[in-house]
Design brief:
mainly alpha; 174 residues; elongated; 6 helices
Length: 174
């Protein structure tokens, strides 16, 4: 193809790779966000068993799988290397960059500032996040149904005209 084909391909290749990487990161982030209720429950269970927050964050990786397990393993590794809890949780927050992760990290660090029952707070976060997911899924289902109904209403006149033309050829030509 020569230079005429090489130039667009040279531009399209890195653009396609960048798009693929950003979509992969977004899927990964969404997978971690969807699993944050499970993560919160696992940390709350570990806290209720008498572990510290640092030990609970490390121990909760055993009950998780996929992207959330990877993120908590990374957090546990940072803690094992001696990073302060606030810094390790802050790096988790910076990696995920989402409102739900911000809320989870704020809940984890709130005990240091205000005290209180962190396990109960995390369980409350988990139930609220799960309820939010359920409501969002219901809303997606309702809007999908409404979009399909709208498509049918828009397509009915064209479908009726096509049907009339098939039943009586030349119907619109007369």
């Amino acid at each position: 193809g020569g230079t005429a084909a090489a130039l667009p391909l040279a531009v399209a290749g890195p653009t396609a790779a960048g798009t693929a990487i950003s979509r992969r990161r977004a899927r990964y982030r969404r997978a971690v966000e969807r699993a944050l209720p499970e993560v919160a429950d696992a940390v709350a269970d570990s806290l209720a068993a008498g572990r510290s927050l640092r030990a609970s964050l490390a121990a909760s990786t055993a009950s998780l799988h996929g992207p959330p397990a990877v993120e908590l393993s990374r957090l546990a590794a940072e803690l094992d290397l001696g990073a302060p809890t606030a810094a390790a949780v802050g790096s988790l927050r910076a990696r995920l960059r989402s409102n739900r992760a911000d809320a989870f990290c704020a809940a984890l660090l709130s005990q240091r500032l205000a005290g209180g029952d962190l396990a109960a707070l995390l369980r409350s976060f988990a139930s609220g996040a799960a309820e939010r997911d359920r409501v969002a899924e219901d809303a997606r289902a309702a809007t999908a149904q409404a979009r399909f109904t709208g498509l049918l209403v828009v397509a009915m006149p064209s479908g009726a005209a096509l049907f009339a033309e098939l039943m009586q050829p030349g119907f619109f030509g007369d």
